[in-house]
Structures are given as structure tokens and as C-alpha cells.
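Dig into what follows:

_____
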Amino acid sequence: MSDAEQPADSAVSRAAGIGQILVIVGLICLYGVGAYWVSIEVILGKDEPWWLKIGLPAVVVGTTILFVTVLLQRMKAAKTDKYTDVKD
């Protein structure tokens, strides 16, 4: 790889990183708001069965906890990744 190609690769990787961050933040916002709306509608609804009123929030909270746990583990592992300097 020549030195002339390196700045372009850097700009592309920065743009890809920014795009990934925006997609992840957008999905987290949509997931959070959607899960909140659905959970509130189910919990406050009078016609829903009791198992749905308990089960849906349990699934939403459990999924959120798992997502945050995996995200934190991946962020921690990325700091000590020994293959970050490997080039194609």
C-alpha cells in the first residue's frame, strides 16, 4: 500500500465508523421508544391477560440487559484486541 492511498483509507474508515455509530444510536432509540410504547399499552390495557402484562416487560427488560452486557464486553475486548494493527 502506498502512502498516497493511506489518507483516503483513513477517511473511509472514519466515515464508516460514524455511519455505524449513527445506525446503532438510531436503532437503540427506536428500540427503546417502541418497547416503551408497547409495554405501556400492554400493562395499562384492561383486556390483556396477566401473563402478557408480565411477560412482555420481562422480555423487553431481559433483552435490554443482554444487549448492554454484550455491548460492554465488546467495548472492553476491543481495547485489548491484539489484531487491530493487522492490515489486509
